[in-house]
Design a protein that fits this description.
6-stranded mixed sheet, alpha/beta, binds pyridoxal-5'-phosphate, Rossmann fold
Length: 436
């Protein structure tokens, strides 16, 4: 498979190169030249297949000449060894729970699959790489867990001191082995700047293989299509068209849904549900794309994105035709007040607890319902994180102490190991040279 850059200047590359480069030199995004379409009988008989079997058919359509199918099968089984159930919470209403992985957020799908695929290529070529990531919280946990104990890969995670939640910090700093945490005495932007400077440092790069685990890496997008297809396979028997509501920030998750749709999966509509960083809902209304800079802080902070990095991909999936994007995707946006009301409503009506991001996806379905005029569909809202990752906010809304899953509880007992780092590039560089 060949991939092109959405900016149209950089050369086309194969998927292995796209994964290790992350970003094309022209600063666009890598996109498959053609989205492979799976045959109708695959979709029709998909209810007979397991999650891994569905995932394998999708992944092998992208990797067919690069990774033999039997090896891809092993990679998928190892990377995604957790469930993605569509939990029915009302008649025709389902919550697609994407937080059964190690960091309890949906980014586990992308990070673990990317780690497995990178490790496969590195072993094959007998190479090693060093991944540098700056995180403001959630991505770091998924990347740390995803790459933990992966042969041929070292990971350095930079996070701003005192600016990530306790649980997030523990997820970054308690693994050890090939995962090193750096606690930077500054902001997330300082962390990002250190990483960017390292990538531009010719001396460092000539001696060491550096790579990013950026959320726009194509290897993080493909595995996110798996769970849409899996949800479809389990819900199609109900005989209703399906609507997916996706709580969105950088729009990787929604783009992955559209990839599954373009591969032949029947979908009535997607709902793009955002917080007040509503660049895409506004675009869907007017056709104008106006970034919000700087982005606005909200309680659904993993979606505080004012210029979504995957937006060019989303458009490209529809051949850059606004009318087609608008026909398939309906956009709605919510304030923090509305988000809190959503958390309370889901608890009251269905006795089910959701995180702020998930509440926004739920609210998106309510507005979709009034738009679609009660036309009967199976409604699916994606739950992108377990509520316990956002415990203080959720407990405040519900006025009650909530149980914490064992996996997170255990973390709080573990000891944090992190190297303190200043915001000076020279300090970071000498640390890296010592460690690499
Ligand atoms: C990253 C994230 C999102 C946003 O996903 P995008 O792919 O960036 O749109 C939503 N919810 C949670 C919990 C996240 O961590």
């Amino acid at each position: 498979m060949q991939l092109y850059s959405t900016n149209g200047i950089s050369e086309k590359v194969g998927i292995e190169e796209a994964i290790f480069q992350g970003l094309p030199a022209d600063n666009g995004l890598y996109m498959p030249e053609k989205i492979p379409v799976l045959p109708d009988n695959f979709w029709e008989s998909s209810h007979e297949l397991s999650f891994s079997e569905i995932a394998l058919e999708i992944a092998s359509a992208f990797f067919e000449n690069e990774i033999p199918k039997d090896e891809l099968k092993v990679l998928i089984k190892k990377a995604i060894d957790f469930d993605a159930p569509s939990n029915q919470i009302d008649k025709d209403l389902y919550c697609l729970e994407l937080w059964h992985g190690p960091s309890m957020a949906f980014k586990d799908f992308g990070a673990r699959f990317m780690a497995a695929v990178m490790s496969y290529f590195l072993k094959k070529n007998n190479r090693e790489i060093n991944i540098l990531v700056a995180t403001s919280g959630d991505t770091g946990g998924a990347v740390a867990q995803g790459f933990y104990n992966t042969p041929n890969i070292n990971v350095f995670i930079l996070y701003p001191k005192g600016k990530v939640s306790d649980i997030q910090e523990k997820q970054l700093t308690t693994l050890g082995k090939n995962v090193k945490a750096l606690e930077v005495d500054g902001t997330f932007d300082d962390c990002q700047k250190l990483v960017k400077t390292a990538f531009l440092d010719a001396e460092l790069r000539s001696n060491h293989h550096l790579a990013s685990a950026n959320s726009i890496n194509i290897a993080r997008l493909i595995p996110q299509s798996f769970y849409y297809a899996y949800a479809y396979s389990r819900l199609k028997e109900k005989g209703l068209p399906i609507v997916f509501s996706v709580p969105s920030g950088n729009f990787g998750n929604l783009s992955a849904g559209v990839i599954a749709y373009k591969m032949g999966m029947p979908v009535e509509h997607f709902v793009a549900a955002t917080n007040v960083n509503k660049v895409v809902p506004e675009y869907l209304k007017s056709g104008d794309y106006t970034p919000i800079k700087p982005s606005i802080s909200t309680i659904s902070n993993a979606m505080d994105v004012g210029d979504p990095s995957n937006f060019p991909r989303l458009k490209a999936l529809f051949g850059n035709k606004y009318e087609e994007v608008k026909d398939k995707i309906k956009g709605f946006a919510y304030t923090d007040e509305e988000t809190k009301e959503g958390i309370a409503e889901v608890k009251e009506k269905f006795d089910y607890v959701v995180c702020p991001h998930t509440a926004i996806a739920y609210l998106g379905l309510k507005d979709y319902r009034s738009f679609s005029n009660q036309h009967k569909v199976s409604e699916v809202f994606l739950s992108t994180a377990h509520y316990a990752k956002f415990l203080p906010d959720v407990e405040k809304v519900l006025g009650d102490k909530l149980p914490i899953p064992e996996r997170l509880e255990e973390l709080t007992q573990k000891e944090k190991v992190a190297t303190s780092m200043s915001t000076t590039y020279e300090d970071f560089k000498s640390y890296l040279i010592k460690e690499l």
